[in-house]
Amino acid sequence: MIEQEKIKLSASLEDYLEAIFFIQKDKGAAKPRDIAERLDVKAASVTGALQSLAEKELVNYAPYDAATLTETGKTIAEKIIRRHRILSDFFTLILGADKELAEENACKLEHHISRELLEDLVEFVEFTAACPRGGEDWIEKFRQRCTTKEDKDCVACIEECLPAGRRHGHGHGRDAQLTTLKEILPGMRCVVQRVKFKKSITHRLIEMGIGRGTIIEVVRTAPFGDPIEIKVKGYRLSIRKQEAENIHVQIL
């Protein structure tokens, strides 16, 4: 018996395994004619594919007879189908793609995605469904971003997520909820609400990607508090203490 881990299949043979699985499930066995119709290929191509799969001990097949999957063939087919389903669900449920487009691209990718990456994708889909900050509303906002192609940190969304007291400062005005970036401890995240600087310094900050609505994570503070290492949009930057004192932020 050939070890399952050592079996190498082309994308075409994986499609045949998948087709045989579904036909066998409906009819008990897969006739070459049924396989040809399902995959829209010629009978001669089906014969060659069945012979190759039989040599790999993935199907039970004799010329002019119907084919059935071996246990190993069934296991591999189920894995291929699982990859397809996960990819298709990701495209439709997360990205909001229409079913036809999702199926077409799932068919292309299912043969090439690694097991490790696929499992990460499964974890991501499950995470978005279970995380209190995720859910359908969060996914819908992501779809809207894909549609509008807007590049922003979305202050409005941050405001929505904050408790009412933090949003409105318990009636003491907007400044009551703000602090300066200098006061933010390492590991904490905040969103920029206001920058008070001369034009030249403000321009430098904008070039660094820092402006109203920017989300900042403080990574660490050097001895004596200067400079401060921050993370902005995935990039690590260093900012002077004086600059941090004039950046007013809201803690997330």
From TrEMBL:
<comment type="similarity">
    <text>Belongs to the DtxR/MntR family.</text>
</comment>
<dbReference type="InterPro" id="IPR007167">
    <property type="entry name" value="Fe-transptr_FeoA-like"/>
</dbReference>
<dbReference type="InterPro" id="IPR050536">
    <property type="entry name" value="DtxR_MntR_Metal-Reg"/>
</dbReference>
<dbReference type="InterPro" id="IPR022687">
    <property type="entry name" value="HTH_DTXR"/>
</dbReference>
<dbReference type="InterPro" id="IPR036421">
    <property type="entry name" value="Fe_dep_repressor_sf"/>
</dbReference>
<dbReference type="InterPro" id="IPR036388">
    <property type="entry name" value="WH-like_DNA-bd_sf"/>
</dbReference>
<dbReference type="InterPro" id="IPR001367">
    <property type="entry name" value="Fe_dep_repressor"/>
</dbReference>
<keyword id="KW-0408">Iron</keyword>
<dbReference type="Pfam" id="PF02742">
    <property type="entry name" value="Fe_dep_repr_C"/>
</dbReference>
<feature type="domain" description="HTH dtxR-type">
    <location>
        <begin position="9"/>
        <end position="70"/>
    </location>
</feature>
<keyword id="KW-0805">Transcription regulation</keyword>
<comment type="function">
    <text>In the presence of manganese, represses expression of mntH and mntS. Up-regulates expression of mntP.</text>
</comment>
<dbReference type="GO" id="GO:0046914">
    <property type="term" value="F:transition metal ion binding"/>
</dbReference>
<dbReference type="GO" id="GO:0003677">
    <property type="term" value="F:DNA binding"/>
</dbReference>
<keyword id="KW-0238">DNA-binding</keyword>
<dbReference type="Pfam" id="PF04023">
    <property type="entry name" value="FeoA"/>
</dbReference>
<dbReference type="GO" id="GO:0005737">
    <property type="term" value="C:cytoplasm"/>
</dbReference>
<dbReference type="GO" id="GO:0046983">
    <property type="term" value="F:protein dimerization activity"/>
</dbReference>
<dbReference type="GO" id="GO:0003700">
    <property type="term" value="F:DNA-binding transcription factor activity"/>
</dbReference>
<protein>
    <recommendedName>
        <fullName>Transcriptional regulator MntR</fullName>
    </recommendedName>
</protein>
<keyword id="KW-0804">Transcription</keyword>
<dbReference type="InterPro" id="IPR022689">
    <property type="entry name" value="Iron_dep_repressor"/>
</dbReference>
<dbReference type="Pfam" id="PF01325">
    <property type="entry name" value="Fe_dep_repress"/>
</dbReference>
<dbReference type="InterPro" id="IPR036390">
    <property type="entry name" value="WH_DNA-bd_sf"/>
</dbReference>
<comment type="subunit">
    <text>Homodimer.</text>
</comment>
<dbReference type="InterPro" id="IPR038157">
    <property type="entry name" value="FeoA_core_dom"/>
</dbReference>
<dbReference type="InterPro" id="IPR008988">
    <property type="entry name" value="Transcriptional_repressor_C"/>
</dbReference>
